[in-house]
């Protein structure tokens, strides 16, 4: 159950017939989302965090997206990253969607921009409680294996960045992401190029979330990702400097020699 004032906000809307809400004890965010999907009545569903918000024109753009892509099981668009005060700090722009790019972590489907067919999501099991730190990307990948995905050239939502959000738990995210790949029913039987893309994406985790990695480990991860998926050479998701063994040691030495600074 929510304890952040959400219930008071919902009560302030009064008896709006389009609004149905429930506040009750649950077993965490995965359980709450799955309850919501089961109780919802609409054909198209979305999952919105309390930190994030939709932008004007979002719903009409999504409705048009499903109308023009009737076979799509998932529609998503662009996002703006905002700070705690709602000020835009970054507006990432994604490459064109492909399942290989999604698996290879060259492209990200941000949760507040994703809209999907509810019955299909339920048929696929909804959010998986075994991987509570990556249930959204897991669902997007499962949907992508079983239906078309449509990418909209429109900014649909704002994604708020602050110290307390779930994606700051890097160790848990990395653990659950690797577990997601291990238990996937779709990836092991996918074409070789998709399996290689998924393995490359796993290698890139070290750069996305950081950790206590040595220079040598990061260099190996960069080369592994590149050898598995050579197109990463042209992607900003692969830090090219990490392909150089001992890069930071060399740059530290250069600073000392040229400027007398500390490495």
| C-alpha termini separation | 49 Å
Per CATH, the superfamily of the domain at 6-182 is Spore Coat Polysaccharide Biosynthesis Protein SpsA, Chain A
Element-by-element helix/strand order? HHEEHEEHEHHEHHHH
Describe the main β-sheet briefly.
Answer: 6 strands, mixed
Principal-axis shape equals globular
CATH topology of the domain at 6-182: Spore Coat Polysaccharide Biosynthesis Protein SpsA, Chain A
Return the CATH architecture of the domain at 6-182.
Answer: Alpha-Beta Complex
Radius of gyration: 21 Å
What's the CATH first level of the domain at 6-182? Alpha Beta
Average pLDDT metric: 90
Q: Structural class from helices and strands?
A: alpha+beta
Query: Helical percent range?
Result: 40-55%
- Which range does the strand content fall in? 5-15%
**Uncertain regions spanning at least 5 consecutive residues:** none
Number of strands: 6
Instruction: Provide a count of the helices.
Output: 10
């Amino acid at each position: 159950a929510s304890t952040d004032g959400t219930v008071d906000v919902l009560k302030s809307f009064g008896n709006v017939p389009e609004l149905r809400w429930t506040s009750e004890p649950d077993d965490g965010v995965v359980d709450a989302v799955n309850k919501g999907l089961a109780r919802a009545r609409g054909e198209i569903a979305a999952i919105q965090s309390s930190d994030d918000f939709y932008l004007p024109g979002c719903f009409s753009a999504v409705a048009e997206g499903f109308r023009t892509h009737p076979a799509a099981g998932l529609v998503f668009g662009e996002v703006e990253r905002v700070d705690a005060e709602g000020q835009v700090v970054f507006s990432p722009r994604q490459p064109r969607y492909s399942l290989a790019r999604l698996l290879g972590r060259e492209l990200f489907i941000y949760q507040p921009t994703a809209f999907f067919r509810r019955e299909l999501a339920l048929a696929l099991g909804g959010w998986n409680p075994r991987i509570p730190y990556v249930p959204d990307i897991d669902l997007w990948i499962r949907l992508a294996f079983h239906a078309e995905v449509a990418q909209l050239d429109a900014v649909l939502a704002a994604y708020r960045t602050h110290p307390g959000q779930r994606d700051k738990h890097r160790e848990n995210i990395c653990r659950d992401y690797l577990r997601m790949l291990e238990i996937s029913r779709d990836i092991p039987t996918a074409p070789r190029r998709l399996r290689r893309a998924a393995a490359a994406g796993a290698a890139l985790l070290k750069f996305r979330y950081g950790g206590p990695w040595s220079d040598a480990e990061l260099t190996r991860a960069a080369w592994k990702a590149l050898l598995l998926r050579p197109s990463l050479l042209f992607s900003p998701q692969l830090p090219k400097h990490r392909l150089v063994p001992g890069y930071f040691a060399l740059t530290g030495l250069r600073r000392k020699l040229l400027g007398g600074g500390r490495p």
